[in-house]
Amino acid sequence: MNDFIKRIENSAGAERHKLLAGIPQLERILESAPARQLCGHYRRDDVAAAVRAELEQARRRLRQGEGGLPDFFSDAFFAPVRQRLAQRHAPALVRVINATGVVLHTNLGRAPLAAEALVAVGAAAAGYCNLEFNLEQGTRGSRYAHVEQLLCRLTGAEAALVVNNCAAAVLLSLMALADGGEVLVSRGELIEIGGAFRMPEVIAQSGARLVEVGATNKTRVADYARAIGEHTRLILKSHPSNYRIVGFSAAPQRRELAQLAHERGLLFIEDLGSGTLVDLRRYGLPYEPTVQECVRAGADLVMFSGDKLLGGPQAGIVLGRAAVLARLKTHPLLRALRIDKLSLAALEATLRLYESPLPPEQRVPALRMLAEPATVLRRRAARIARGLRALPGVQCWTESEASLAGGGSLPETGLPTWVVKLRVAGHSPDSLARRLRCRRPALIARIGDDCLILDPRTVTPPEAREIVQLVAGALT
Length: 476
Prior knowledge:
Blueprint: H1 2-21, H2 26-30, H3 33-39, H4 44-63, H5 75-89, E1 96-98, H6 115-126, E2 133-134, E3 139-140, H7 145-155, E4 159-163, H8 166-178, E5 182-186, H9 199-205, E6 209-213, H10 221-227, E7 232-238, H11 254-263, E8 267-273, H12 291-296, E9 301-305, E10 316-320, H13 322-329, H14 334-337, H15 341-353, H16 365-371, H17 374-389, E11 394-403, E12 415-424, H18 429-437, E13 442-444, E14 446-448, E15 451-454, H19 461-475
Parallel strand pairs: 1-13, 5-6, 5-7, 7-8, 8-9
Antiparallel strand pairs: 2-3, 4-10, 9-10, 11-12, 12-15, 14-15
């Protein structure tokens, strides 16, 4: 019996060896018509690597006794080769439909740009532009001049400067104004600004020394006054963008801090974080100090982000007194932090929308999403739900919930919305969410109550129609 089994095994082994020997050489396969066609789209080395990987799969299957030799010159053999190549060369940065309801979603790129900003980016990217060239004088110019006057008109500041993000704006300001000196900061404002970057570490990196003032929940002007010494250079106020101290708490008015600083020969600068040029209360949102208010209160410098409540591209905007800005404009670090031409074009176009006679919420997508009333969102949710109910195995309904501003803006503020909740037979919410993330465009949703949750606040009307198609594709 054992001899018989051995003969069978030897026979099968010989057959597998014969089949393996029948696999053609890689170079022969690369001369085939399907391979030559692929070489017209991809580098020959990449095609060879994909074919080699598929040949290795074929050898593995043969060794395990799974089937016979495929036709190595057929479209059937090249189908997984094409798939490998497509996956390898697919763009890593793809369009996403944000159905989370988080308007300024940091992981999804924060504020979407206005149509006017997209046109400006395209024009700047398509060829050359006068980035650092004065067209009137025919000499070298400043890249910051394209937005400086705009920012001054909108905010009342004397001068302005733009760098690549708000953290860079804070670092540059501290290095230019407080290197080797002391910076006074309230203990309630020693914030972490995301990605584990903390204000004490930023101050240390700038070469200044942090002096903590007051208590976490209560800081008074007298606390700042007592902390001022011969090495003090400035008072820094930081907006607690992503948290709130409530209850038994107090903080001095910025006008009081500006007055104290100037009486003692110091500077008062404010990191406003998200920053807004409009009073958000007109949209039914909580009060947030505007950039204009901070300038009028006497701040020597005000810093804020371009891609949050402003609704523009990633940028760090610094504005205030001309004499103080001049020290930043001549600092060596500025070149390392400068804004690029595409972001600058988008920022200029966004700022011009605030000078338009039309309300900015009609043109700036982030403001429109923040201001959109729940009645409009309820109708949009109902349309999405009707389309989804037509799909087999889908159970869905609408409910009232709350969206978030995101991006460290308006913490603890829920924006009334209506969402679509759905369950699909045979699919857990996690598996369905994963399938939708792998579609193109990717669809990102929330999970809760054992449901997939779609919030239309961050979904445009055209995207609402796409959602039904994406879910249908994910189910097949």
